[in-house]
Amino acid sequence: QVQLVESGGGLVQAGGSLRLSCADSGRAFTTSAKGWFRQAPGKEREFVAAISWPGSTMYYADSVQGRFTISRDNAKNTVDLLMNSLKPEDTAVYYCAAGSGPTSDYRRYRAWGQGTQVTVSS
Q: How far is the CA of 48 from the CAs of 25, 67, 90, 101, in angstroms?
């Protein structure tokens, strides 16, 4: 029952907003750091944001700093990514991950969701 499930992806126009959510439905990673990564066609997986447990420390990629906000609701065991001022270059499949600490290194995450598509039109 170890699983992460993302939701909230979709199609938006440039300048718009989307809120992604990640649920640890099996509650196997309650005290784990959580992160968001994305991958565009033909590109490697890219770090987006990460948050510690219980949620006091947050890290962001330079490309999303000031536009995206990561948060977690420990009572619901969910992690959200609020994306504002979206740009076409934000188009990618977004993945939620759980690991041992807030880090941009994908190798430090031991569980991943299936991904949700975010498409930003110009």
A: 22, 11, 10, 15
